[in-house]
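Quick one:
INPUT:
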């Protein structure tokens, strides 16, 4: 039974387990993402998150405490220089564990552990602002009706603006056009006949 089992020893002695977690934490801080077994990923999360919390306050004492756990001065420098400013506003939960299925050899449950704020796929909406696209030319701003000055001085007298000679319907307009064409054709035929008669008289 699992009563009172708060620490997963991972089948290792204390010294071996601490060295392994320190090495995995240094790799996670350097690469921001590592692939391991699910049990190790859960143990690493409990190990590395308190160190990230300490890195928010950059002091000599916190650097010494983190170095005692990680045993790697380059990982400590990266943690305080690169990771801490990016996770400063997050109140815990700095890592994410994603299950990746079982391993082929021994069927062990595999997982991927990563730093949440360094994942560009999940945070793409926050990183990229919405781009506005212009698909047509900008329309001119409509002039308000108050600024339009009427052309006629007296708007009540609109008799000059009405064209009484204009046809009332489309049919009347077409009739007038056809009449004009017929008159022109008849005039041309008369002119042709007159010229032919003059030529005959001359001969």
């Amino acid at each position: 039974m699992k009563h009172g089992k708060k620490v997963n020893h991972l089948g290792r002695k204390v010294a071996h387990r601490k060295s392994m977690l320190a090495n995995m934490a240094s790799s996670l801080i350097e690469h921001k993402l590592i692939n391991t077994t699910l049990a190790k990923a859960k143990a690493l999360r409990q190990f590395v998150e308190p160190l990230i919390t300490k890195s928010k306050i950059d002091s000599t004492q916190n650097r010494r405490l983190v170095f005692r756990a990680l045993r790697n001065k380059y990982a400590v420098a990266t943690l305080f220089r690169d990771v801490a400013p990016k996770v400063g506003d997050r109140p815990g939960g700095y890592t994410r564990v994603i299950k990746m299925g079982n391993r082929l050899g021994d069927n062990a449950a595999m997982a991927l552990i990563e730093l949440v704020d360094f994942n560009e796929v999940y945070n793409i909406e926050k990183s990229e602002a919405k781009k506005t696209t212009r698909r047509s030319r900008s329309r001119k701003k409509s002039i308000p009706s108050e600024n339009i000055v009427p052309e006629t001085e007296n708007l009540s007298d609109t008799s000059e603006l009405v064209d009484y000679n204009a046809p009332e319907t489309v049919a009347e307009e077409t009739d007038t056009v056809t009449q004009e064409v017929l008159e022109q054709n008849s005039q041309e035929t008369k002119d042709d006949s007159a010229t032919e008669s003059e030529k005959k008289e001359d001969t």
